[in-house]
C-alpha cells in the first residue's frame, strides 16, 4: 500500500475517528489528484491509515492509460478488497466503470478522473466524516505524497489535442486551466513550507490558459495574464527550482528559452515528440514538421547552452516502415537529446489508432525498441560525459552513511539520473550545494562537493 500520511497519531486511532486508506497509482498528474483528495479528507477530520487493516475504507486512485496500467489498477483494487473489503475506486480507470464492476463487483463506488466532488461524496456516503473536523491538522501546503523538498504543481486538467494513440481527452476531457492567481498562491504556500523544487505538470503544459483566453488574474495584488510564459516568469520569482514537464512542441515554447537562459526557470524541457517521420506523426495526429523541430532545438541551444532536453517516443506504430524507423534514428543522432524514454506501441482500448492498417509485428517492435535504445544510450552517455569537469549546483535528495544522492538541474526526480557524492557529509535533503563533476556512467554522474 502506498504511503498515505506523514503522521498517524495514536490518539486518532483510539478516538473512533473514521480512517481512510489510500492507494495512489499512475503518473505525477494522478499523484496531484491523490494529494488533493487526501488534503480534503484531512481537512474534514478523517485520519489516514498507512495500512489496510487500520482503515475503515480504502480509496484506490487508478491509472488506465495503457493495458499494463489497467491490469495494475485492477490488481490493486483486488488487493484492497482482499485486505480490507470496503473499496472506492477513482481516477482514470474510473471512466471504465463497467470493466471494474465486472472484475470486482464488490467495490462500493466508482468515480472517474478529475471527479473530486464525486469521490468525496462516495466517501461521505460509506464513511461519514466526524462532527469535529481537525482542519488544524492539515499543513498549509496540503497533504503531499512526494518528499518534502519537491512537489508536483498541476496547472491544468485535460487536453485539446486528439493524438490517435491516446485516450486521455476521453478520460479527462478538454483543457481546463486553473486561474494563475490560484496556481501562484499554491506555489507560494509550497515554497513557504520548504519545497525547493516545483515540478509543473499538466496533460499539455504549454497550452496553459488557452481555454481561459489568457484572462488576467491577480496574485499578491498584481495583474497576471494566464499563460505559460507569465506563469513561468512569476514562478521564477519564488525561491525554488521550477521544472516544466509535458510541453507540447508548439512554437510558443521558444518564448520560454530566454527565461531559462536568465536562470528564472530550470534549463530543462520535457517535450514528448513521439516520432520523427512526418507520415507517422500525421497518423498520430501530431505536428509533423520534424525539420523545424531540429532547427528550433539548435536555436534553443544557442540561446541556452545548458538546456537539457527529455523526450519520449513510440516505436512500432501502425504503418511504421523501415524507412520511417531509420528517419527516427537519424533524428535521434542529430537532435542529441539528453534523456529519452521509448515505448513499443500498444493498442489502448478506445484509441483511434486501433483502426489504422498495417500493424507492426510484436517481434519487430521489440527489435526496433532495442535498436532505438542502443542508439540513444550512446548519445545519453556522451552527453553526460561532456559534463565531467564542470562545476554545477545540485539539490540533495537523500543522505546516506557513505553517500549523498543529489540531482542536477538536468535531472527530474524519478525519471532522470542522479549525481552521486561519495562519503559522509553534513547535508540534508533539500540542500543546494555546489559540486565538481568528476565522472559519468550510462545514467548518473559522480561529483565532489566544492569545499572551502
Ligand atoms: S497531447 Fe498528450 S494528453 Fe493530449 S491527446 Fe496527445 S498524448 Fe494525449
Automatic annotation (TrEMBL):
Q: Which reaction does it catalyse?
A: L-aspartate(89)-[ribosomal protein uS12]-hydrogen + (sulfur carrier)-SH + AH2 + 2 S-adenosyl-L-methionine = 3-methylsulfanyl-L-aspartate(89)-[ribosomal protein uS12]-hydrogen + (sulfur carrier)-H + 5'-deoxyadenosine + L-methionine + A + S-adenosyl-L-homocysteine + 2 H(+)
User: Has UniProt tagged this entry with the keyword Ribosomal protein?
Assistant: yes
What cofactors does the UniProt entry give for this protein?
[4Fe-4S] cluster
Question: Where along this sequence does the record place binding of [4Fe-4S] cluster 2?
Answer: 159, 163, 166
Residue ranges of domain Radical SAM core in the record: 145-382
Q: Which InterPro entries match?
A: Elp3/MiaA/NifB-like_rSAM, Methylthiotransferase, Methylthiotransferase_CS, Methylthiotransferase_N, Methylthiotransferase_N_sf, NA-bd_OB-fold, Ribosomal_uS12_MeSTrfase_RimO, rSAM
Q: List the CDD domains hit by this protein, alphabetically.
A: Radical_SAM (cd01335)
Q: Where in the cell is it found?
A: Cytoplasm
The entry's keywords? 4Fe-4S, Cytoplasm, Iron, Iron-sulfur, Metal-binding, Ribonucleoprotein, Ribosomal protein, S-adenosyl-L-methionine, Transferase
Q: What does the entry list as the binding residues for [4Fe-4S] cluster 1?
A: 27, 63, 92
The family line of this record is: Belongs to the methylthiotransferase family. RimO subfamily.
The identity of this protein, by name, is Ribosomal protein uS12 methylthiotransferase RimO
- Species of origin reads Thiohalocapsa marina
Q: Source taxonomy lineage? A: Bacteria, Pseudomonadati, Pseudomonadota, Gammaproteobacteria, Chromatiales
Amino acid at each position: 500500500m502506498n504511503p498515505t500520511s506523514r503522521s498517524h497519531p495514536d490518539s486518532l486511532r483510539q478516538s473512533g475517528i473514521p480512517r481512510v486508506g489510500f492507494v495512489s497509482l499512475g503518473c505525477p498528474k494522478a499523484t496531484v489528484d491523490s494529494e488533493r483528495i487526501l488534503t480534503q479528507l484531512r481537512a474534514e477530520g478523517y485520519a489516514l491509515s498507512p495500512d489496510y487493516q487500520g482503515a475503515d475504507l480504502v480509496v484506490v486512485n487508478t491509472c488506465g492509460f495503457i493495458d499494463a496500467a489497467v491490469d495494475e489498477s485492477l490488481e490493486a483494487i483486488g488487493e484492497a478488497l482482499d485486505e480490507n473489503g470496503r473499496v472506492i475506486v477513482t481516477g482514470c480507470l474510473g471512466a471504465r466503470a463497467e470493466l471494474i464492476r465486472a472484475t470486482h463487483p464488490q467495490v462500493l463506488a466508482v468515480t472517474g478522473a478529475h471527479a473530486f466532488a464525486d469521490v468525496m461524496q462516495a466517501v461521505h456516503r460509506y464513511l461519514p466524516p466526524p462532527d469535529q473536523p481537525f482542519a488544524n491538522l492539515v499543513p498549509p501546503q496540503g497533504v503531499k505524497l512526494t518528499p518534502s523538498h519537491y512537489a508536483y504543481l498541476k496547472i491544468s486538467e485535460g487536453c485539446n489535442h486528439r493524438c490517435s494513440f491516446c485516450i486521455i481527452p476521453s478520460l479527462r476531457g478538454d483543457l481546463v486551466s486553473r486561474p494563475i492567481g490560484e496556481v501562484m498562491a499554491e506555489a507560494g504556500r509550497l515554497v513557504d513550507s520548504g519545497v525547493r523544487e516545483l515540478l509543473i505538470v499538466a496533460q499539455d503544459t504549454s497550452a496553459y490558459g488557452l481555454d481561459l483566453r489568457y484572462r488576467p488574474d491577480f496574485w499578491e495584488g498584481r495583474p497576471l495574464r494566464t499563460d505559460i510564459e507569465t506563469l513561468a516568469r512569476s514562478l521564477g520569482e519564488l525561491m525554488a527550482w521550477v521544472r516544466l514537464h509535458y510541453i507540447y512542441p508548439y512554437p510558443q515554447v521558444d518564448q520560454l528559452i530566454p527565461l531559462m537562459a536568465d536562470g528564472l526557470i530550470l534549463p530543462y524541457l520535457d517535450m514528448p515528440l513521439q516520432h520523427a517521420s512526418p507520415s507517422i506523426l500525421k497518423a498520430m495526429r501530431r505536428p509533423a514538421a520534424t525539420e523545424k523541430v531540429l532547427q528550433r532545438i539548435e536555436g534553443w541551444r544557442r540561446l541556452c547552452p545548458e538546456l537539457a532536453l527529455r523526450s519520449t517516443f513510440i516505436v512500432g506504430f501502425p504503418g511504421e516502415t523501415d524507412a520511417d524507423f531509420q528517419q527516427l534514428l537519424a533524428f535521434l543522432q542529430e537532435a542529441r537529446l539528453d534523456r529519452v524514454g521509448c515505448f513499443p506501441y500498444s493498442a489502448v482500448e478506445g484509441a483511434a489508432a486501433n483502426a489504422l492498417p498495417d500493424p507492426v509485428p510484436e517481434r519487430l517492435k521489440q527489435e526496433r525498441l532495442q535498436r532505438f535504445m542502443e542508439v540513444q544510450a550512446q548519445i545519453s552517455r556522451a552527453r553526460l560525459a561532456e559534463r565531467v569537469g564542470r562545476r554545477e549546483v545540485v539539490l540533495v535528495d537523500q543522505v546516506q552513511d557513505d553517500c549523498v544522492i543529489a540531482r542536477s538541474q538536468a535531472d527530474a526526480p524519478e525519471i532522470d539520473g542522479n549525481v552521486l557524492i561519495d562519503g559522509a557529509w553534513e547535508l540534508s535533503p533539500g540542500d543546494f550545494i555546489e559540486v565538481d563533476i568528476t565522472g559519468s556512467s550510462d545514467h548518473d554522474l559522480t561529483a565532489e562537493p566544492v569545499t572551502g
